[in-house]
Design goal:
551 residues, alpha+beta, Immunoglobulin-like, 4 domains, six-stranded mixed sheet
């Protein structure tokens, strides 16, 4: 459980410690005793999941009971809790499907360890198998379902930490720690481990099943923390009023020239049986004999100040901005009748009057690139995002629901920016207005860099070269992501005084290329030439050659 909400029980700490010890032992020897110990830990994790689910169910039941008593107050929080339940349940069910798939791949479709959706880990026949977990979750081309699982955990973490739940920072840190998907540090090895390979690759089947159960436990853990936080919010506004302040609420503190500024003035807490009187104008004050400051309106009613129309305790104020001004100040008094007499509460506010303005700014660079999504922020001061419509020449522009911004996809190069622009219209006070347009340059994505064994050339062990599957490429020092794949390359070497060339029409080594490399000895050089690669933009690019000296 999260440390700040539900401390771990001694049983949960013991299970976690056992899992760490067993994982360390796996690096030394996979004995039957270790396999049986994993079965024990896996059973303990499943018991923890059951306990979490029971506790979470009681919280959901409390939401339902509270909603019966006060529907208007509880329903918004109950709906948020339901959203948490649906997301966590979906991921947990997906993990259960993965466990069943792995076991049935190992023991067959009629595996005795699987009964419906229940798993009996002590009945798994091939619990020590090292292949099936990685086959399902990693995949031969690193396209296994473990990568989808990681994406789901990241999405869950972002959802729980976002505005829908709005947890405190301590709870966000707890979610980040429990649902951590960072790759481990690369220490003492040339092979980079990832979150997926660290947990699922080349491990006994029972260890993979246990790790998936641990992730299920983590999910029910954060679910419990999230819904506990939401349940506490139901009564967070039930506080005793001991202070009354005047409040000014405006639709926007920024208006365009000849636009209308609107605001609501009201008391933060008041008796609904009384209607306050709200004055707008210059406020003056004095100190009475008791040393208390008393406020009053300066001048004459109807001449120097006026009153607002009040509905349900809220005063309606509006003013037309005829001239540009960085700050227009206004204020007044709210007068309330009490058993002891009249009490006045002063208030003040300000707004701006400005010309029509448009802001279009690329979030990464001042240029667009062909073949990738280019993030762009588009805003018009004082206008809600939903009232903004953007169009583009030389490409397409669409709203990005994930970031709340926009994504641009240009179709052709435009180094001068003469043919590429974004135009914006906005709906202001029910009318559409043209906000203007901004021009952009368009470039192609830089060429990637070819690599073998994560190296661009230099000294390389012959055994390391023979262990590679082919030539890969990536863009270095570039803010955007575009996958590139090598489509062909030649391997060239001098064998007994003669140049020998072997070609590949993919990114993989051919048998002929492997045979050529096997003929080389320490100190020999091997060249990778005529390397060609293609990205999502469909452009085939020649890449610089690589030269390796073998050790």
């Amino acid at each position: 459980m999260g440390a700040t909400n539900c401390p771990e029980t001694p049983r949960q700490k013991m299970i976690a410690m056992m899992y760490l010890v067993l994982t360390a032992l796996l690096a030394l020897n996979v004995s039957r005793e270790i396999i049986e110990a994993f079965v024990l830990v896996e059973g303990g994790l499943n018991k923890s999941i059951e306990n979490f689910n029971e506790k979470n169910k009681s919280i959901y039941d409390s939401f339902s009971q509270a909603e019966l008593e006060n529907p208007d107050k509880v329903k918004p929080w109950r709906l948020k809790a339901d959203a948490v339940r649906n997301r966590t349940k979906s991921i947990s069910n997906y993990i259960q499907d993965l466990k069943i798939e792995i076991i049935q791949k190992a023991d067959g479709e009629d595996a005795v360890a699987v009964k419906g959706r229940e798993i009996y880990s002590d009945s798994i026949l091939k619990s020590d198998n090292l292949d099936y977990g990685g086959e399902v979750l990693i995949g031969a081309e690193h396209n296994g379902k473990g990568y989808d699982l990681k994406d789901s955990l990241i999405a869950l973490r972002e959802f729980l930490s976002g505005s829908a739940i709005d947890p405190p920072q301590s709870l966000k840190e707890s979610f980040r720690k429990i649902l951590n998907t960072d790759d481990p540090p690369n220490i003492g090895t040339s092979e980079k481990k990832t979150w997926e390979t660290m947990r699922f690759d080349n491990l006994p089947l029972i260890a993979v099943i246990t790790m998936l159960s641990k992730i299920q436990t983590d999910i029910t853990n954060v679910e419990s923390d999230a819904i506990n936080h939401l349940f506490k919010q139901i009564g967070i506004l039930d506080v005793k009023v001991n202070k009354i302040d005047a409040v000014v609420r405006s639709k926007s503190s920024y208006i365009f020239k000849d636009g209308t500024y609107e605001a609501e003035v009201f008391l933060a807490a008041f008796d609904t049986t009384q209607t306050p009187t709200i004055y707008v104008g210059r406020v003056d004050s004095t100190v009475n004999d008791a040393g208390i400051v008393e406020y009053f309106m300066a001048g004459e009613l109807g001449k120097d100040y006026d009153t607002l129309h009040v509905e349900d305790g809220v005063g309606k104020y509006s003013a037309v901005g005829h001239s540009l001004s960085p700050s227009v100040k206004w204020g007044g008094l709210i007068e309330l009748k009490t058993p002891s007499g009249l009490i006045n509460y002063p208030f003040e506010a300000d707004y701006q009057v400005g010309d029509v303005g448009l802001v279009v700014s690329p979030t990464k660079m001042n240029v667009f690139y062909i073949g990738v999504d280019n993030p762009v922020d588009i805003s018009v001061p004082g206008v809600p995002k939903e009232n903004i419509v953007a169009t583009m020449t030389n490409g397409t522009i669409r709203e990005d629901k994930a970031t709340g911004g926009w994504m641009v996809r240009p179709t052709a190069g435009d180094l001068t920016g003469k043919r590429t622009s974004i135009s914006v219209n906005a709906e202001i006070h029910g009318k559409k207005r043209e906000m203007g347009s901004v021009a952009f340059r368009v470039k192609t994505v830089p060429d990637p860099v070819a690599k073998v064994a994560m190296s661009k050339g230099g000294v390389l062990q012959r055994s390391m070269l023979l262990a590679q599957t082919g030539v890969f490429c990536e863009i270095e020092n570039f803010d955007f992501e575009m996958p590139f794949k090598v489509t062909s390359f030649d391997v060239t070497a001098i064998i007994q005084g003669f140049e020998d060339v072997k070609s590949s029409n993919s990114n993989k080594f051919t048998e002929g290329q492997y045979d050529l490399i096997k003929k080389l000895r320490r100190g020999d050089k091997v060249n990778f030439e005529n390397i060609k690669a293609k990205g999502d933009d469909g452009i085939t690019r020649p890449l610089p050659p690589m030269i390796f000296k073998l050790q």
